[in-house]
Amino acid sequence: MYSRHLIVQQGGTRSLVTGMGATIALKVAGLNGWSTIGGISGGSIPAILMASKLDSLTALEKILACDFSQLFQPSTRGGADPAAAFAATQDGERTPTHKFVARMLRKGMMHTDKLGALIESQVKTWPESFWTMASSESSHVVFTSTGVYEYGFDGSFSVLSNEPAPISLAIRATCAVPGLLEAVEYRGRYLFDGALSPYGDKPVAWVRKHLLGDEGLIVSCFSTGKDSRKNSMLLNLGRWLLCHNASKVAPCDRAADININPHVPELNALRFKMTEAQKQLGMLAGFNATMTELSKHSSVFQEGVRNLSTATDFAMLLNVARQFLG
């Protein structure tokens, strides 16, 4: 059976705004029927907004008006370190220094309660096509509309829940950057940034292995910037410190059929204090990169694609969006 899958990959707030531009371009082009829409880390936000079929113009306006920095508040929760007992179960498996660093990374400097509340206020029920991924010490955990599934780095598989998890929990978990944003507890596991999973920064491989039918198409959006090399190094370090036995997993088939790659050197992945002009720049980059790729691959879409050009500025992007989505 033919299937079509969209993935908005990790990249923090840069992925959020470029992913928003990309999803608007896909809708403007007339591409609305997706078998699955997945998002990792910051990419989970435009992905879930698209999957929930919210009004794109309203979602765009809310993102432009939102102060991202206010969504992440200093972590001042009282009591003992919630990760301490969990870390204690790893005795004998790592050096004391290694375990201490891992615990500190799990704890994080800020919590994401407001981020979760904001997303849940906009998306009331879990979208049928949406999925996202978070990491644990020994597995990657996938959240879907049908339940929560754990894929161990040792090849094991288990069903953690036959019901979807709370939307706020899943988004907070996939966005939990180690050391910066605190890990999220779920069913006795501490979950953090989905990008740290062996499949998290290569989600195309996971979709090909677990979601793609006999015949299908994968479209992937992955943004880059001047900090991309540094971010890749930090991901590898975080994976080494936190993901026990992750090296046993070797994803393959990493290339999507259509790769949308907006490059925005002016935007860092972890820029929480982002001006409206910077958000517009990221959205414009995502929109134009998508339109460019669709023009190259229009023949692969069975329903056809509207033949539209790139936007010269954000005002033009907005006009096109209003014309076709308003």
List keywords for this structure.
single chain, 326 residues, alpha/beta, 8-stranded mixed sheet, 12 strands
What report would you give on this structure?
This protein has an eight-stranded mixed β-sheet with strand order 8-7-6-5-2-1-11-12, sandwiched between helices. Strands 3-4 form a two-stranded antiparallel ribbon. About 5% of the residues have low confidence. It is built from eleven helices and twelve strands. The two termini are 33 Å apart. The chain has 326 residues and is α/β, with parallel strands linked by helices. Helix content is 39%, strand content 16%. The longest helix has 22 residues.
User: Which strand order does the major sheet show?
Assistant: 8-7-6-5-2-1-11-12
- What proportion of the residues form beta strands (DSSP E)? 15-25%
Given as residue ranges, the uncertain stretches (5+ residues, pLDDT < 50) are 78-92
Which percent range fits the helix content?
A: 25-40%
How is the main sheet built? 8 strands, mixed
What integer is the average pLDDT? 87
Q: Give the total of beta strands.
A: 12
Principal-axes shape call? globular
> Roughly how many Å apart are the termini?
33 Å
Structural class: alpha/beta
Order of helices and strands: EHEHHEHHEHEEEEHEEHEHEHH
- How many helices? 11
How large, in whole angstroms, is the Cα Rg? 19 Å
TL;DR?
With 326 residues, the protein is an alpha/beta fold. Helix content is 39%, strand content 16%. It has an eight-stranded mixed sheet, sandwiched between helices. A two-stranded antiparallel sheet has the order 3-4. It has a two-stranded antiparallel sheet with strand order 9-10.
